[in-house]
Every structure is written in structure tokens, then in C-alpha cells.
């Protein structure tokens, strides 16, 4: 490897681990079990699971691996944080769902609901596309920072893995400046990384 390449270990940039990889996966399995129960009534159509890229990619993968229903899987991409730690309040759908959600029960899968801007925008968008219900399954919920109080569509449910403290967290899909998504655990960065 060339000497100019950055080659430090990303774990060295973490100040505190909030949830270990084991705690995360255990909670993901619990959420999947709840979804299995809630969507398994006879005659009801299986949901479309839509991950919000990029942050939800690991959570979505682990979640659907533990869902035992014949779900379909898709992604949507929304951006509002750019390269910083503050939402610009105007989420933009930069990559649409491929599957037709008309008349379907949709489960939106998020890594985090923070101000609520992204999820609120997506619920309205899926409603405009004719979804029957929209549930939200987020690994982290940061209610202390909520600005938009969103309403789920139809008989949609809200699933949340952990309540997140009011800190900017990274890992398990969550990034700072596109990095740290590949950590298996969730933690807080050392201040010198983002200051
Ligand atoms: O509730 P909010 O304040 O809207 O914040 C939550 C959103 O912010 C992050 O996405 P980001 O726009 O950073 O894109 P990313 O998923 O590619 O990291 C995160 O993945 C959520 O989608
Ligand atoms: O705490 C966070 N970390 C990473 N991305 C985020 N997007 C909203 N909140 C966060």
C-alpha cells in the first residue's frame, strides 16, 4: 500500500460504543419477529419492504433475513444531510422505488429517524403512489430532535429498535461524511473527527 493512503483503523475514531454488534443483531431479530407476527394474518398480502438508502443497507439485510414471510424488497434513496451532521430540512428523492407499491402494504426501513423530515416526506410520497398502508421500521429513533411529527398511512405501525441519545452516531449503516457505515456496532465519534 502506498504511503499516502489513509490506513488507520476506523475503530480508533470512536469515542464510545453505544450498542455493540451483538446488541444490534439481537434487537433486529426481535423486530423481525414482531413483523412476522403482525403481517402473518391469513389472506393479507405480504408487505413490500423498502430500505432507505444508503443508511439502511445493513439493517435491511439483517432484518429481511429474519422475516419469514414472502416479502418483496426494494430501495429508495433520499438525501438531506449532504456531508454534514445537520439536516437541510428539504429531503430529495434521488432514486425512486422500482416496484409498484399501488395497493400494497409498505414497510419503510430506516437506520434512524431524527428530525422526521425524511420519513415524513417518504410517507407522503408512498401515499401519492397509492400504497394501502405505510409502516416504519427504524433501528434508531431520536425523538429529542424531532421537528416533523409524521403520521403513518392506513393501519401502518411504528417499529423502533433503540431510542438514540441526542448525539450524532455512526456505524451499522450510519455515516459521517460517507464513512463508518461498515462498523458492526453503533457509537459516537471523537469530537476531533467532525470539528
Ligand atoms: O429524520 P431525518 O432528520 O430526516 O434524518 C434521518 C435520515 O438521515 C440519514 O440519511 P442521509 O440523508 O444522511 O443519507 P444516507 O442514508 O445516505 O446517510 C438517515 O439515513 C435517514 O434517512
Ligand atoms: O445521528 C446520526 N448519524 C448519522 N446520520 C444521521 N442522520 C440523522 N441523524 C444521524
Textual characterization of the structure:
This is Hypoxanthine phosphoribosyltransferase. Pathway: Purine metabolism; IMP biosynthesis via salvage pathway; IMP from hypoxanthine: step 1/1. Keywords: Cytoplasm, Glycosyltransferase, Magnesium, Metal-binding, Nucleotide-binding, Purine salvage, Transferase. It is found in: Cytoplasm. Pfam families: Pribosyltran. It is built from 4 helices and 9 strands; from the N terminus they run βαβαβββαββββα. By secondary structure, it is an alpha/beta fold. The chain has one domain: 3-Layer(aba) Sandwich (Rossmann fold). The strands form 2 sheets. A 6-stranded mixed beta sheet has the order 4-3-2-5-6-7, sandwiched between helices. A 3-stranded antiparallel beta sheet has the order 1-9-8. Helix 1 packs across helix 2. The chain starts with 13 loop residues before the first strand and ends with a helix. The mean pLDDT is 93. 1-O-pyrophosphono-5-O-phosphono-alpha-D-ribofuranose binds next to strand 5 and helix 3.
Amino acid at each position: 500500500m502506498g504511503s499516502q493512503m489513509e490506513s488507520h483503523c476506523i475503530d480508533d475514531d470512536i469515542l464510545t460504543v453505544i450498542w455493540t454488534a451483538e446488541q444490534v443483531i439481537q434487537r433486529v431479530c426481535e423486530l423481525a419477529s414482531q413483523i412476522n407476527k403482525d403481517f402473518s394474518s391469513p389472506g393479507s398480502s405480504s408487505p413490500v419492504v423498502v430500505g432507505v438508502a444508503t443508511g439502511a443497507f445493513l439493517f435491511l439485510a439483517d432484518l429481511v433475513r429474519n422475516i419469514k414471510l414472502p416479502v418483496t424488497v426494494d430501495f429508495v434513496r433520499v438525501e438531506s444531510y449532504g456531508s454534514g451532521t445537520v439536516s437541510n430540512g428539504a429531503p430529495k428523492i434521488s432514486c425512486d422505488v422500482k416496484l409498484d407499491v399501488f395497493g400494497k402494504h409498505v414497510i419503510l426501513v430506516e437506520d434512524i429517524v431524527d428530525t422526521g423530515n425524511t420519513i415524513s416526506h417518504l410517507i407522503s410520497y408512498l401515499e401519492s403512489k397509492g400504497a394501502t398502508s405505510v409502516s416504519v421500521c427504524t433501528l434508531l429513533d431520536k425523538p429529542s430532535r424531532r421537528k416533523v411529527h409524521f403520521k403513518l398511512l392506513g393501519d401502518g405501525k411504528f417499529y423502533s429498535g433503540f431510542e438514540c441519545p441526542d448525539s450524532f452516531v455512526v456505524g451499522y449503516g450510519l455515516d459521517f461524511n460517507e464513512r463508518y457505515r461498515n462498523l458492526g456496532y453503533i457509537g459516537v465519534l471523537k469530537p476531533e473527527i467532525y470539528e
